[in-house]
Amino acid sequence: MHSRRVKTQVWRESVQALEIRAAMIHGPSKYPIGVRRRFHLRQRNGTCVYPQNIHSEQLVRRRDQKEVVQWVEQELNPKHVGSSESDSSDQSSRSTNAEGESRS
């Protein structure tokens, strides 16, 4: 048990920053948008978390879309990957009625 506590403490002290990301498809748009925010961690008498900036970075421009898609496809390893928002999705391959019964 002591060895596990020591490993946890070493890991905690080695982590200096944390980035939180979110990716989504908004409304009728087929293009992804994303947001990210970076935090610095300080280890003194416990862990303190400080934001790098007071704002979250919004990734809504066309040039940002490729990066957001890469987050989803490479880092999150989704079960289904397609060339558009409806490729390989449950919604396009089968549908259900209001009671949740399959209509295909």
Walk me through this protein's architecture.
The structure is a single chain. Helix content is 30%, strand content 28%. It is α+β, with helices and mostly antiparallel strands. It has a domain at 13-77. Strand 2 and strand 3 form a beta hairpin.
Strand content: 25-35%
Contiguous runs where pLDDT drops below 50 for at least 5 residues: 91-98
Q: What is the string of SSEs from the N terminus onward?
A: HEEEEHH
For the residues shown, what is the average pLDDT?
75
Termini Cα gap: 54 Å
Instruction: Please report the number of helical segments.
Output: 3
| Main beta-sheet annotation | 4 strands, antiparallel
Quick description:
This protein is an alpha+beta fold and 104 residues long. It has helices at 2-14, 62-75, 90-93, and strands spanning 17-25, 32-43, 47-51, 57-59.
For this entry, give a set of tags.
104 residues, alpha+beta, 3 helices
Helices and strands in order:
Elements (H helix, E strand, L loop, with lengths): L1 H13 L2 E9 L6 E12 L3 E5 L5 E3 L2 H14 L14 H4 L11
Antiparallel strand pairs: 1-2, 2-3, 2-4
